[in-house]
Amino acid sequence: MLKLYNMKRSTLPFLLLFFLISINSICQSKRLSARVLKQLDVAEKDMVNAMSNGDSAAFKRIAGYDYLDINANGTKMTLKPMLIDVLNFKGASVNFSEQSQRVYGNFVLKNGRAKFYFGGQQVGEVFYTQGWVYRDKKWQFVHWQGTITKDFLQKK
After folding, report:
1. CA distances from 34 to 37, 41, 144 (A)
2. Which run of H or E residues covers position 138?
3. For residues 19 and 69, which has the higher predicted lDDT (pLDDT)?
């Protein structure tokens, strides 16, 4: 009888842990509302405006603390150096096309093609992936990865 009691007692923490993980997983799989997903489009426009205006303060409000940028020119940077680099994009414009997005809980991957312009002249074209996370009741821009398109390389 004592052995059975000890066995039940030793499995209790594992059952409790399994129960807590299950509850947490169910809560995380809650779908984002259409209204919240629509806010992502606004956040993306705000991010582009912050870049085009060279406004690091605005970019910092939009980006997450865990922001990571991997650029087509082979550079990688986190939020702190990106806030300095934002100044280099003042006056730039971007045209997104071929866009799609996939939603994973509170995380969204946006993909597409981006053409970059300075003074009306195209200076770059990439296939991109953006990562956005919905936390603290707002969208946060946490990732950018761009790869130069074959089309743009052939124009050079």
Report:
1. 5, 11, 24
2. strand 138-148
3. 69
Q: Tell me the two tokens of residue 82.
A: 């990106």
**Sequence-separated (6 or more) residues with CB below 8 Å from residue 142:** 63, 64, 66, 67, 68, 131, 132, 133
CA distances from 156 to 29, 95, 146 (A): 46, 19, 18
Residue 62 has phi, psi (to 5 degrees) of -90, -35
Quick: pLDDT tens for 101-131.
Answer: 999 999 999 999 999 999 999 999 999 999 9
CA 45 and chain centroid, separation: 14
In sequence order, the 6+-apart residues with CB closer than 8 A to the CB of 129 are: 109, 110, 111, 143, 144, 145
- Give the closest residue to 74 by CA, choosing from 149, 141, 137, 148: 148
How far does Cα 156 stand from its chain's mean position? 30
The model's pTM is 0.78
Instruction: Supply 6's token pair.
Output: 């000890």
Whether residue 111 contacts residue 99, with contact meaning beta carbons closer than 8 Å, is answered with yes
Predicted local confidence at residue 154, as pLDDT: 85
**So what's the pLDDT on residue 47?**
97
> Token pair 């009691």 is at which residue?
5
